[in-house]
Every structure is written in C-alpha cells, then in structure tokens.
Amino acid sequence: MKIAVCDDNASDLLALKTKIKQAAPADALVKIAAFSCADALLTAVRDSGFFDCYFLDILLKDDNGIELGKTVRRLNPDASIIYITSSPEFALEAFGVQAMDYLIKPVEEEKLAADLKRVMRIAARSGEVFALKVPGGVTRVAVDQISYAENVDRCVNLILKDSRRVVGSTSRFSFEKMIADLLVNTQFIQIHKSYAVNMAAIQTIEGEKVIMDDGHCR
Questions:
Q1: For residues 103 and 84, is the Cβ–Cβ distance under 8 A?
Q2: How far apart are the C-alpha atoms of 110 and 137, rounded to whole Å?
Q3: Cα(195)–Cα(212) distance, rounded to whole angstroms?
Q4: How far apart are the first and last CA of the chain?
Q5: Residue 218 in this model has a pLDDT that exceeds 70
Q6: Model-level pTM?
Q7: How far apart are CA 52 and CA 196, in angstroms?
Q8: What is the structure's pLDDT at 24?
Q9: Could you please report the per-residue DSSP string of 122-174?
Q10: Burial of 205 from C-beta contacts in 10 A (0-12 / 13-18 / 19+)
Q11: What digits encode the pLDDT tens for the residues 155-178?
Q12: In sequence order, what are the residues at sequence separation of 6 or more whose Cβ sits closer than 8 angstroms to the Cβ of residue 131?
C-alpha cells in the first residue's frame, strides 16, 4: 500500500509518518512518501503515479488542503483521502471532497489504525491494479488483463489481453522506473529495455524471441 502524507509543519509531518508506520498492520507492506507542500505532492502524482491513500493537512502555507484534495480526487479518483488538522472548522468541506475521515491533531493512534484497515480493505476489493500516468491524470488497469508493456517514444503503452492499447503520457523517467510497480508482480518480467511481458500471456519462446498469445513477437 502506497501512502502520501502532506504537511508543511516538519515536526507534524515526521510524527504522522511515524504513527502511520506504528499503526499499520504488522504484515502489511506500506510505503510512505512525505511532502512538505502541495506542489511537491502533485508533481509526484503526475510523474510517478497514484497513491492508495493521502493524508492531507488542511492549512498549508502554499495551498488550501481542501483544494489540494479536489485536485488529488480529479487525478486519482479511487484514492482514499484523510484530512489531518488542528482545526475542526473545515470538516463539512472535507467531506465534500469525499474524504474518508477528518482527524484532529494530535492524531489518536486507535483512529489512525482503524482508518488504515479501511484503506487496505478498499484496496483489496479493487484487486491488483497498475496505475499508468495518462494525459489528464492517472488510469488504473487490472494487472491480470495486461499482456505486455512497451516503451514508445518515452511513453509506456499497455497492451491488454483483449488487444486494446492504453497509451501513457510522455515521461522523463526511465522505462524501468515507470513500470516499477508492475515489475513487483512476479508474473511480469522485463525481457528488453523497452518491453515487459506477462508470463501468462506468452505462447512460445523461440531463441531470443518471445511470441505472445496475440501473435506479436517481442
């Protein structure tokens, strides 16, 4: 589970990151990215993909947490958003962003642990997906529907088992970094600097050639 935390107060940011680690189930694989401003968080979302959950402070120096949440919701519609703040006055606006919860500082670990369990249940119900950055935001594709991924002009293209093609946005990152979350799945293997294939979609292997179920040779 990937979690983003955004708070412009350095001590609060560190404290929340620590509490999340402590509150997460012991058997959960949790990655936490901390951001001190809205711009840094949004840049990470646009460049590197989505997070399963966003913990957002309401009162940010460079932005309003509610507006940040609206942008996050537009880019990453399925994400869970949880607001962390020292002021209860924005609670109604927060739920207008379809926030999962609104926690008052200092955050109670019991409430935090309950929210993390809810986030994990939501992620589990949605099945394993790969988030691909596309023009205008991020799209989520079921991993078991991906036949292979290819790098075309610095864009990741996903070719699905039904022959549909999902075209990603141009990125300054390497192909390996853009598909890192996909390669975590042991079903996928990178066979070339520009190709990663789903081993379940391989028809035959002839020498250095890999023939996919759709007939394409990689």
A1: yes
A2: 34
A3: 12
A4: 32
A5: no
A6: 0.64
A7: 24
A8: 87
A9: HHHHT-SEEEEEETTEEEEEEGGGEEEEEEETTEEEEEETTS-EEEEEE-SS-
A10: exposed
A11: 999 999 888 899 999 888 898 888
A12: 49, 50, 76, 138, 139, 140, 141, 181
Instruction: Pick 8 or 201 by higher pLDDT.
Output: 8
Reported as a single tens digit per residue, the pLDDT across 178-203 is 888 888 776 788 888 888 888 878 87
pLDDT single digits (tens) 33-64 = 999 999 999 998 887 778 889 999 998 887 78
The tokens of 120 are what? 């994990």
Q: How far apart are CA 171 and CA 40, in angstroms?
A: 17
Which runs of consecutive H residues, i.e. helices, occur in the chain? Answer: 10-23, 38-48, 65-75, 91-96, 109-125, 175-178, 180-183
Cis peptide before 88 (omega within 30 of 0): no
SS3 106: coil
